[in-house]
Records
---
Amino acid sequence: MSQTEASKLPKIPDSEPDGSKGKGKQQLETYRVYVVTWNVGSRFPENISLRHLLGLQDVTVDKDTKETNAHLPDIYALGFQEVNAQPQQQVLGLFKEDPWTHKAKELLRNYDYVAVKTEQMQGLLVSMFVRRQHVEHLQDIEAEFTRTGFGGIWGNKGAVSVRFTLYGCGLAFVVAHLSAHDHMLDERIEDYKQILENHHYHVKRYREIYDHDYVFWFGDLNFRLQGSDSSTEVRELLRDESQHEALIQRDQLYQVREKAQQAFQVLQERLPAFPPTFKFREGTSEYDLKRRPAWTDRIMYAVQPLNRQPGMQLSIEQCSYKSHPLYTISDHKPVTSDFTLKLYPNVRAPGVVFSPLSLWKIGDENTVEYRKQAEFDEGPNDWIGIFPAEYASLADYVAYEYVNQAESPTSSDSNQVPDPFETPSHHRSGRHHHRNRQRQRRHQEANAQELVRLDFADDVELRHGEQYLLIYFRSTGVRGVTSLAGVSGVFVAEKRHGSPHRTEYHVD
């Protein structure tokens, strides 16, 4: 199936047996995941477009409705290696806005994607983007990293990952950069084993990488060709299409995964039908014969088909797998793969439901009201953020308030601002507002739901006439594991007129 054909795949419900954990009957639906890996060689994304790389070159979008002329991926997983990690870039990293994530975000926001999590370890980077309609269903988002290079000291080699649960299934996205050079095969195998041994999550049922229903493992894995051919001889063989199959059979990753089963044997991969993606002379698509051409940049996947509902097996298909030779800033070519997979859209975690709020009075105290569903387990570090209605990242909040005031930082900690996934820090411009008086009221209702009212202080700085919304973050307080428990409708902020007063929800 071509990438164009895959892009037109609808979400088609499969069989619907009884026994759903959500409303109505259980079902499977098809979703799309688009994976990118690129060793960018410390280059910056200046003067290049990512539209072709992200498969958007033929996609048009209606600016008003945001409808497109193609069925877009539900998830983008972007993995980069050798991202510039000089000190000035590490400062940028404090703001969770490295140049590559920023470049992708500014493009993908036009197609209604939200940056949900980024994890960076030195030059190794993974950035996850999800279509807006799925964001509020993301559960247990967690990032992890493992160093392998130089005894795990420098972090120049290893893996970073993001995992989350969506529609009843656990997904893990692992980006790796393994040891280089032809003769370092044993070290690459050892890198893989170290990552598995040291990469752990803090989510029930999904403690290890391969516990997940779906695993995507990609990056500059640095596997080379077996044999003693010279660089020139390999290049000449590549010019003969009839020799492609023989060359790929000599690929070290193919050998250790399929033949010897020393590493990555749990994963699957459609063998590359594209030319080797390393090593090129920068600025060209000509091989640099200082190294033998090799398929160093790879994308693999795994599925645990029986992890969930009996008789409703999960499945995945690798619909496209290709390189992008038009990108020449690095000595590697980027590689992408388009997948379809099955999820359970009726499986929804319990959460909170915000009452409608049409207007936020700037300069007044405003009261947020929501109902906790009976099964919702409130965490000690939960907080509610105010976001622009067209937010492009979960780090885009402009103000926030902790749900449990007794658990929140005191006014002396007012310089602390939460990263949605980490311990509060001072790197964002959002503001936390704390008052000594009780600003939270709770009422237990007959249906076992709890009605909660939470006051936001009068110095929340919103822009007059702009639209905003609220997002409830459930934080376990353990290694940044975070879930989204509810998203409000859109409301407008307006400047105060007349004497100060408190603006509250009014429930019809």
---
Amino acid sequence: MAIRLSLICLLVSVTAIAADLTPERYWISALPNTPIPNSLRHLFTSDFSDEKSTNVQVGKGGVNVYTGKGKHGGGTAVNVGKGGVHVDTGKGKGTHVSVSGGKGHGGGVGVHTGKPGKRTDVGVGKGGVIVHTRHKGKPVYVGVKPGHNPFVYNYAASETQLHDDPKAALFFLEKDMVPGKAMNLRFNAEDGYDGKTAFLPRGEAETVPFGSEKFSEILNTFSVKPGSGEAEMMKKTIEECEAKRVGGEEKYCATSLESMVDFSVSKLGKDHVRAVSTEVAEKNAPMQKYRIAAAGVKKLSDDKSVVCHKQKYPFAVFYCHKAMMTSVYAVPLEGENGLRAKAVAVCHKNTSAWNPNHLAFKVLKVKPGTVPVCHFLPETHVVWFSY
């Protein structure tokens, strides 16, 4: 009886608490003066989003949570009232309900239906109620060649990467960043899926296994066949996240927007920080020749920065690293077909700790530590800096 009454009291604040826990609201609360780059805003929802809605009702009878297209649309209903807790999942399978009030359990109610990326989670605890409705399923894997991320600098370029990886063209020398300079570029980074992979809310991302020691569990969680191209791609991402640091850099793989914000703020502070990314006027623009516009290049930062690179994974994961001795530039570009791009470039002044066979050195035909090495950011990547 005591547990039931405490649950009802906690549930009264559901709408305010649940709203505060959205990734966007978390950003605004942590960085009220820092606009969210479009590259990140577009990852709040998946291309495979479900049109079903989540309704939370608080009334005298308790709290009712419905997810589904209609009252009898086969969704999930969670009712907490005088009669206790009742869960109806319609035609779905695999619902787990836990009610605890003893020591060591935290107290509260947790309801999980389905696997991450295809489920509704309702949690009731000391902090209130959290309701997450995930999309119908993870994006469809369409296949990419598993290869090292060229923005992880302790790896050597593969034999074919120099010619086959479109990101090879993103590297250039700082001295070439002048108006009129022409470069063949493509900014939309392929992540192996038919449609963008979205952020999971931190509360859900933290329940999803991540790490090489849990790889079998990860494949099972996302229904990925061992040995498949998708499995190899995911394995590569995890290996890069666990790889040793380059020189004195600090790195972190963010599995949610909230954790990316926390890492970046911990390295740069929160009072005067910006986050920017490349913006191209046309979606999925092909490789083409761009020229640096006459308007010229603008230096945004000339000290430390945190660069976050989107990884190839079933949900949004970013490889973030704090780099010292870097410059960040805004570079206006004009394509040969008239397409305009607001590109962001990062220049590394000290590359002495990079793998001597890294892709950048192969492309530019220079040696580590000799000249600043720059690269444009693909559209889904972001750089943070103080100003």
---
Amino acid sequence: ALGGLIKIRGDRCWRDLTCMDFHYETQPVPNPVAYYLHHSPWWFHRFETLSNHFIELLVPFFLFLGRRACIIHGVLQILFQAVLIISGNLSFLNWLTMVPSLACFDDATLGFLFPSGPGSLKDRVLQMQRDIRGARPKPRFGSVVRRAANVSLGVLLAWLSVPVVLNLLSSRQVMNTHFNSLHIVNTYGAFGSITKERAEVILQGTASSNASAPDTVWEDYEFKCKPGDPSRRPCLISPYHYRLDWLMWFAAFQTYEHNDWIIHLAGKLLASDAEALSLLAHNPFAGRPPPRWVRGEHYRYKFSRPGGRHAAEGKWWVRKRIGAYFPPLSLEELRPYFRDRGWPLPGPL
């Protein structure tokens, strides 16, 4: 319910049902399925958005409506998370979200998965349950302590949840924050707002001594999963998570002043740092001296249209240069920048 409320109160596109027109193309790390889903008919995107609201805003309350409603909740939530896993590389988030829903399925619900003949596992478990009910053992000290601990934990969680519930009911709901130092009860919600255009930062290097010469040849570094070469197929890595690729998505709709770590990365590329290069898929200077200059270029990316000219050329993406993200940098120029921030100087700096 938290994620649903954050969406409804956040981006207008969640209210006018148009967010899914953009999500597949602009999500952090799209996969091949996202390419085809992005080109679905408009009515399908409206249906997706309505389904999202139904599952995130209404289905959670099925937990309080009895056994059958709880089972329906479990089925819908697991199917919903499976769709999210198939349609994007959202790391292990959706896999973990499935786990609580497994509690919705009791023994009677899952019984069909096990053989039921005489002497079978299911038959033995049922006999054990009948024996336990018939014995009615007296409560032991350990069970009393455990029950007291469970009640105490429930009271603690209820108390810690008070500010969370107040935040939930507030018209100024805060997303992705905590309300106590223990971080036990928090608020979380993904994609409260949807970016409408996809920007990418492309890191390039050159061996030329003059970075500003018009005939300077710049070569692209390729990341393991994020869009770069328009002809490279989107990757499929869930539940694995390439954190650097994810951070590059955030950096692309900000500036390098907000993400000075990207200048740190540029310095390591100038020094051909082995650890930094291991995070990339392609180093254009492999087996050669390191680049003399590294720069960041800002591009706008869009999925190519199936059957269109770019798709016929084998391109998954169409990109257009926006401008410079950060100017050409050399190791010598980065010396004071690194020292001011207390960063170790890479390579021969």
---
Amino acid sequence: MGAQKSIHAGKAKIDVNVDLTHKLCTSLMLLPPIPIRDGGSPLSLVIGSLCIKHPNLFGGSEKLDVSWDKGLYDSTVLVAYRRPRPEWLPQQCFVLQHSVSPEIGVHGTPVDNFSRSGSGGVNLSRLSLGVDLNEPASSNWTSTTSIKFEHVNILSDDGRSITRDMEGFPVTCSGSTHDSMVVLKQESRYAKATNDSFSRFSMQIEQGIPVLSKWLIFNKFKFVATKGLKLGPAFLVASLTGGSIVGDMAPYQAFAVGGLGSVRGYGEGAVGSGRSCLVANSELTLPLTETLNGALFLDCGSDLGSGRLVPGNPALRQGKPGSGTGFGYGLRYKSPIGHLQIDYAMNSFKQKTVFFGVSNLGL
């Protein structure tokens, strides 16, 4: 439901991708989670991206990537510059990124028995600048270290800088309209696969460095462990996700539980949002045809009672349960031009929800 085009201009390559997937979602009466802010103009239904790549910027195999991604309610601009180094040294990538997106997981308002989340009037404008160091791969392990300066500004739905949410509670750690921090991040990933199974594990650790007294100081970690196993004609995938944060914290840094990729049957963050979380997912897929699979799934998640520790306690104010279970069935369709996923889920409040997803669908 989209279009892709590549243009070569000298040594540079321009990739243009326009995706009209949301029009298909609208035709299936799947309502968007938050109102369209521009009055429903045609551009609001377009999801697109523009990417410019130069493989040899200064004649020494330096690579420059400039990309812009537009979603229904969010936008991201990314500039990445890579210069070659010997394989035994960490590969450097200098990154400048700016994004604007609605903050739904923590400040969103659950509706329809927690099956959807609406806008809470809080949006994040995030600017980051730093460097990524990709360590040489060792066996099945890869590692990335990054250090970045981040500046997060909080905006209302009409684009004004704000210090408090709709109920008068602070939306930043500093109490002003923005937070600043220098973040040192270490990420390690493990992956191993055979014909009948696969295993994946990732661990992220973030440390806020106190360069200035008003900047955030915190330690945050997150892990994801996934195991896939073939059971006759079927394939079972199970995963466990968890994390925690200590130290300074703004509400938008909380772990949001609920939604697609977390606990299906709930809206984004509708289960809870806390300083800690634990989410378990399992899915069994069965082949129906060569390109169509059926799926049965069970998800459960909890904020481990840490919702009350988030500044302003947004989860309690919105009546989030703190834990929840979702289960259901779905279809997975694979084609040369993309993947289609439809899930029919029910949450702990017996509210039924349809999740619809399309990836890499283009002409």
